[in-house]
Design the sequence.
């Protein structure tokens, strides 16, 4: 993406964050506003998208490991 389309993530803003714990599992969800830049026909374009993201994590000793992500 970066080489072929000049695609770069310029910024991500996380809001409406929530964590639900289920024993050794946790579900993190939030709304993320992402700003990207790409090149099309030699011209830079900038775009924004707003998405809800959910990440499932599992406890592994003292760490939390992401095991699934959904946008």
Sequence:
């Amino acid at each position: 993406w970066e080489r072929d389309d000049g695609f770069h993530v310029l910024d991500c803003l996380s809001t409406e964050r929530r964590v639900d714990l289920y024993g050794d599992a946790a579900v993190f969800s939030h709304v993320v506003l992402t700003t990207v830049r790409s090149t099309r026909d030699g011209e830079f374009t900038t775009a924004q998208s707003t998405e809800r993201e959910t990440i499932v994590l599992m406890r592994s000793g003292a760490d939390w490991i992401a095991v699934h992500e959904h946008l």
